[in-house]
Amino acid sequence: MRISKLLAFTAIALCIWLSSAKTMLATQIEVFNVTGYPAANPEIQGPFTVYGSNGLAGPYANGGLGAYGSPSTIKITANGFLFDATSIGVGGANSSIPAETETFIGDVYGGGTVSQTFNFPGNSQNFVTANLVGFNNLVDLRANIGFVTLQDLTYTESAAPEPGTFFSLGIALAAAALIYRRKRSRNASVV
């Protein structure tokens, strides 16, 4: 009887630990360098796949990645994980690009989107950081851009539990329920 309680509590504690371990891993900030691509479309590099609606162009003189034509959409999709985007660099394709507004749209896991606009000051190839607020649990990030280039997406892996974690928790709860039910039926038959 004591062993069955111990096993049930151990299984539950293990599931909780697995969930919290995923959360602890998610605190590491990483930078995905969207520069240096050949103009292949789509381009798979490391943790992300990048796609340009009019084809990818670059790297430009400033090292950034852009797209052919304006307006264009560059889509950065995570390969098998969810992520929280915190910032991305935006720079002019050349120094004569005027000021323009870029729109960033995040596709959230489970449905829905989050969006934010960014005003690029123009007349510079230097990168300006676009801070992204509320871009959490994303499947991908889309940038509706004009004649600008992108560089250095700063992100963390989301702390959203994977389906296997929920499966493990379900098995642990089912085992605890089964143990409780057997204990209860034994006690009822003894009386």
Tell me what you see in this structure:
The chain has two helices and eleven strands. It has two domains: 1-26 and 159-191; 37-156, Sandwich (Jelly Rolls), CATH 2.60.120.430. The strands form two sheets. Strands 1, 2, 3, 6, 7, 8, 9, 10 and 11 form a nine-stranded antiparallel β-sheet that branches. The model is unreliable at 20-26 (pLDDT under 50). By secondary structure, the chain is an alpha+beta fold. α1 (2-25) runs antiparallel to α2. The two termini are 17 Å apart.
Topology of this structure?
Elements (H helix, E strand, L loop, with lengths): L1 H24 L4 E3 L10 E3 L2 E5 L3 E2 L8 E2 L4 E7 L4 E10 L7 E9 L4 E8 L7 E18 L2 E10 L5 H28 L1
Antiparallel strand pairs: 1-11, 2-3, 3-6, 4-5, 6-10, 7-10, 7-11, 8-9, 8-10
Helix pairs in contact: 1-2
